[in-house]
Amino acid sequence: MAILPIVETPDPRLKQVSQPVDAVTDELRRLMDDMLETMYAAPGIGLAAIQVGEPVRVLVIDLQELPEGEEDEDKRVRAPLYFVNPEILERSQEMTTYNEGCLSVPEQYAEIDRPSVIRARWLDYDGNAHEQEIDGFLATVLQHEMDHLEGILFIDHLSKLKRDMVLKKLTKMRKLAA
Ligand code: GNR
Ligand code: NI
To answer: What is the CATH number of the domain that holds 47?
Structure first.
């Protein structure tokens, strides 16, 4: 397994539309393993293949939630999810707002509205097909990741004024870090 460099805005690769994969092969599983390792190291809770420069419709998610009643941050449980060629079949009219971040827009956050519940279809790590209704934080993160497959970042859901403010803060942060 390998930790891969994460592509950051304004890299034009993040605007690319990713292509469906023909089959879940060992080579694709290797990519998914590397994406997961890269995501854990970042650390993050989701990663689309284009964020490591691969324009294919593949993403990994692990919400790494604390067990009920647990407060120790070290007790987070790993439960990786793999989505190949994901599709959204239905979206609820009801919307939910989350303060989103993105590894490709480091250390910037903004409140984004998205449908609260979606019905999705995808292939998993073994190439098995799933169709399921998804709600809660997973619905938000899956929609954030699926946006990456269309070349869309969470900041693209903001007004130009707010987006430019975020990008300005990012530039300033990078100058301070340099
Ligand atoms: O690590 C991440 N956290 C996050 C928080 C709220 C909504 C979406 C996300 S996904 C993000 C990782 C990432 O950039 N995935 O593309
Ligand atoms: Ni992201």
So the answer is: 3.90.45.10
